[in-house]
Amino acid sequence: MQLVERLSSGQSDEVIAVLASAPVATTAEAMGECFSKADPLGAALEETGWELFEAIRKLTDERQQEAEKICDTIVQALQSDEHVIPLALAFQAARSQAITLLTESHSGDAAPTENAVVKGKRIVNQRGRDNLDISTARDLLVRLEQELRSGQTIRLNMRWVIEEGESEQ
Q1: Which of 90, 93, 152 lies closest to 122, judged by CA?
Q2: Local confidence pLDDT in tens for the 169 residues of the chain
Q3: pTM score, two decimals?
Q4: Within 13 A of 134's CA, how many CA atoms are on the CB side?
Q5: Structural domains in the chain (count)
Q6: DSSP 92-114
Q7: Would residue 116 count as lying in a domain?
Q8: 107, 127 in Cβ contact below 8 A?
Q9: What's the CA gap between 96 and 61, in Å, rounded?
């Protein structure tokens, strides 16, 4: 952050001197990798769609905790060396998770349906998703599995539609 402050407070003709005197807090290998990927990294930063992450940061319902996790992964990716956490891939995954979070059905404080209750079990989280493509469904299953804590189980109800041909308008 000090570097950013020095760059923003200096004159335009001082930028090179400020950058040249900046301490490098990484290995030469990591720095070389970043330089070799400068164009794709710049594109990843420009194409990220920061508005999406601003939108999920404003969530105040049961999705807020998941939104915070997504934002934390963005911060971690920005703070990590490129060879540790590839920035473009981290942004792509976070963007997909944010879109899923904003578009999934959520029940707010609605009570779970009667057929969802299993005797002796307490429902910790219950949500529904409709009209998913196979890739989004796969991502959702992976995320559910990753979030599963000790002593918890996941039960799913599934239905699908396989279509062909062009849609009528």
Answers
A1: 152
A2: 576 677 777 677 777 887 777 777 778 787 787 788 888 888 888 888 889 999 999 988 888 899 999 999 999 988 887 778 888 888 888 988 998 888 876 554 444 444 455 667 777 777 777 778 888 888 889 988 888 888 888 888 887 778 888 866 5
A3: 0.49
A4: 3
A5: 1
A6: HHHHHHHHHHHHSB--TTPPPPG
A7: no
A8: yes
A9: 19
- Residue whose pair of structure tokens reads 């990591």 in the numeric block: 30
- CA distances 131 to 44, 128, 157, Å, are 28, 10, 14
Three-state secondary structure call for residue 20: helix
Q: Say if 86 falls within a structural domain.
A: yes
Helix (H, G, I), strand (E, B) or coil at 16: helix
Residue 98 lies in a domain: yes
Which residue bears the tokens 């090179």? 16
Contacts of 124 (CB under 8 A, 6+ apart): 152
For residue 115, being part of any structural domain is answered with no
Alpha carbons 37 and 110: distance in angstroms, whole number: 48
Name the residue range of residue 78's domain: 37-107+127-147
